[in-house]
Specification:
Layout: H1 2-12, H2 14-17, H3 20-59
Length: 65
Amino acid sequence: MVSELKEEFLAGAYQVFTPKTEQSEHQEIVRLKKRESDLLRKIGQLQVDNDFFASACEDAGLKVR
């Protein structure tokens, strides 16, 4: 609990000392990094799914690209 509060405080403490424009830029960067992470995770999952189904098709004797 305390460690979570500390992490939250440290993540937002910069806002006290930075101008509003820098804060909005920082928030945009954080948002974009999260979006990138989500997209990379999705790409990885799709690759796993693709490999699985390609293997299943080969095992079933179906033509794989």
